[in-house]
Amino acid sequence: MARVCFLLKVRADRVEEYRAAHADVWPEMRQALSESGWRNYSLFLREDGVLVGYLETDDFAAAQRAMEATEVNARWQAAMGEFFESLDGARPDEAMRPLAEVFHLP
């Protein structure tokens, strides 16, 4: 199993809206994530907009491809894209770059 952590930056003036959007994630999005192999998935948001994502999966690249193939992911990424800084034309899920794990205490 792989543990994956990534950072993104939510626009500081949109933090509360972003929080509200995640208070009620679409059921079909939650189901697609689960069916695509995203487990123990959490998002942590700092007040200045720094977003930390964490998930566990057997194969992150395969989990990303599986989500990319879903219609609900395209809709979700389009809806969430406006909240982020520095995507350089990419969707939020395309801008995720896993951080290197340097320590783990099991």
TrEMBL record:
One of the record's GO molecular function terms: racemase and epimerase activity, acting on carbohydrates and derivatives
InterPro entries associated with the record: Dimeric_a/b-barrel (IPR011008), Rham/fucose_mutarotase (IPR008000)
Signal sequence, start to end: none
One of the GO BP terms on file: rhamnose catabolic process
Name by which UniProt lists this protein: L-rhamnose mutarotase
Source species of the chain: Streptomyces harbinensis
